[in-house]
Amino acid sequence: MSNITKIVLTGGPCAGKTTALVRIIEHFSGLGFKVFTIPEVPTLFTQAGMDYLTHNKGFFYEGEKATLEIQMALEDKFNRMAQECEQDCLIVCDRGTMDISAYMAPEVWEQITRSVSTSTPELRQRYDAVLHLVSAADGAEQFYTTSNNASRNEDMTEEGLRIARMLDKKVIKAWTGHPHLRVINNNEDFENKMHRVIKEISAVLGLAQPIVQERKYIVELTGTVPEDSIASEILQTYLKGYPDAEERLRKRCWDKKVVYVHTTRKRISQTEEIVTERQINNNLYEMMIALADPERVSIHKQRKSFIWKGQYFELDTYLDQLQGLMILETKGITDHKSVKFPPFVRVIEDITGSTRYYNYNLAKEAKNK
C-alpha cells in the first residue's frame, strides 16, 4: 500500500488557493506522487441551490450538516482509492471540515458534529497538515477581486474587505490546535507565496528542505495586541537525542484545550534539513518527558498569534528563567524591508539567524543562570 498524505488548503477570500492547487498538482506529480484534489464542497452546494446566508434556521442547519457529511464522505472515498495506488499519494482538500465551523455559532457547530458522531478534535486529526493562505483583502488589497468566484459574497468595498478579513481570522481560529497549521503570508511577490506552499507540503512529505532564516526580533510592547489575536501558553521541552538531531516536546494550551506535539529536526547538510512533526496523546507525552535533556530547562512562554497587514506574526513573551524576553517572529518573510511591523511593538534588535536566540540554546543558557 502507498503512503498517503492528506492536507487542507484553506484561507480567506481571494487568497490564491486556485493558483496554489495548480502548482501543487504540477510540482508533486512531477516528483512521482499521485495527486488527488477534493473540490470545495460549499461551492458545489451553492451552485446546486444551497443558500448559506438564509435566515431559515432549519434550512441552514440541514445544509451545513449535509456539507459536513459530504466533505467527510468525499475524503473517505478518495482515501480508499489512494490505498489502491502503487505510488505515494497526496490528497489535497480545497478547504476541509473545520472551515465549515467558521461560518456558524459554536453551539450550532457542536450540535451538527454530535449529530454525525464526530467532534472538533477528531475532525482536525483527519489531516496531516493545514495550509492557510491569507486573504488578499488583508495587506494585498490591490489584488483583491471577486471576479474569479461567482459564489463569493464579499464584494470589493471597504465593508466587503472588512468581512473578508474577519472570515480569514475566523478560519485560522477554527484550525488552531492542529499541530501542523501553517499560515502563508501575503508578500509583495505572489510567487514567494506559492513557493512557501510547495515548501510546507514538501516538509510534511519528509523531503529535504533548504534552511531558511525566518525574521525574528527582540521587541517591547508599546500598545495593545489586537483582541482577535489567538492567545496560547507553550511549554517546550528538549529531549536527550542524537548528536546530529534536535528533538523536542511541545505542550500548547488555549481556550481550555491542550495539544501535544513531538518534533524532530535533523540537519543533513550545511544547507538542508528534515523536520518531522506528529501529534501525540497525553500518556505518550508523560512517558517521553522523562527523557528530558538535563542540561536544558523547559521553555515556558505565552504566545499571541495575529495577522497584521497580510502578514502572520507570533509574539512570544518568555516566562520563568527567561522572564522579560519578548520575541516577534513572522514566517515566510526573509527580507527585513518587507516586514510590516505592527504599531504596538518597538523593535529593539534584529536577531534573525542569531543562534544564541534559538530556543534550543536559550534552554541551555537559562539552565546555567
Labels describing this entry:
alpha+beta, 5-stranded parallel β-sheet, 15 strands, 31% helix
Would you write up a description of this structure?
By secondary structure, this protein is an alpha+beta fold. The chain is 31% helix and 28% strand. Helix 3 crosses helix 4. The termini are far apart. Mean pLDDT is 89; it is low at 146-154.
Describe the secondary-structure layout.
Layout: E1 4-11, H1 17-30, E2 34-38, H2 41-48, H3 57-83, E3 89-94, H4 106-115, H5 120-124, E4 129-133, H6 158-175, E5 181-184, H7 190-204, E6 209-210, E7 215-221, E8 230-238, E9 245-254, E10 257-267, E11 272-280, H8 282-288, E12 299-308, E13 311-318, E14 326-330, E15 345-350, H9 359-367
Parallel strand pairs: 1-3, 1-4, 2-3, 4-5
Antiparallel strand pairs: 6-11, 7-14, 7-15, 8-9, 8-12, 9-10, 10-11, 12-13, 13-14
Helix pairs in contact: 3-4
Short description:
By secondary structure, the chain is of the alpha+beta class.
Number of strands: 15
- Biggest beta sheet attributes: 10 strands, antiparallel
- How far apart the termini lie comes to 52 Å
Average pLDDT, all residues: 89
**What amount of the residues lies in strands?**
25-35%
Helix content: 25-40%
